[in-house]
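name: query_chain
kind: protein
chains: 1
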Amino acid sequence: MYNSFQIFIPDKNKLTINTNIAFYIPLAFFVTLFLNIRVQPYHGIFSFILIIFAIIYFYLGITRTDRIKPIKGKLEGFILFEKEYLVANNTKIDLSEIQSVQISVGDFIGEIYYKSNLDRLDLQPLASNGTNNWIEYCLQNGVKNKIFFRQEYEAQHESIYPFLRTLIQRKIITLPEVLKILDFESEYNLQSFKDSLKE
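structure:
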């Protein structure tokens, strides 16, 4: 569904492959062998291996913006943003039960952050995995929860507009707060959202 997002459960202890370590440690090993073992046929073999490393280096460098960053955690279940309620892993929460809420959306799979490290020696992927989106809410009964979720594509966050409009109309969140959350691409889209609050 358009307004359904995969729930992301972070795990900082999860090991992921570091491209730099996986590439440069073996490279240093073979460079050392190449410089210290001049006997044939080993020297020729090491020369060939280093040529392969050079090809891999150029490939990894060129494809940095196409490769997705590894996920440090797991994707489990779905969160659904509806006009009058929120559903997280089949648990339905009516918006009348919510006392306060904070939301952060915008990160999507493949997004490139221009402030990312563009060092030529860094071979790590640059494309986002889309998991840096979250909603944190406090219910009327005092229960608090924070849920991270994954956005599949750039415009998917537009599916939560009806949810946000209801939050504004019920004074759970303010319009200025929502405008900080959403990145409207044009003045027309911004005005359309404001006009929809009057409906």
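note: The chain has five helices and nine strands.
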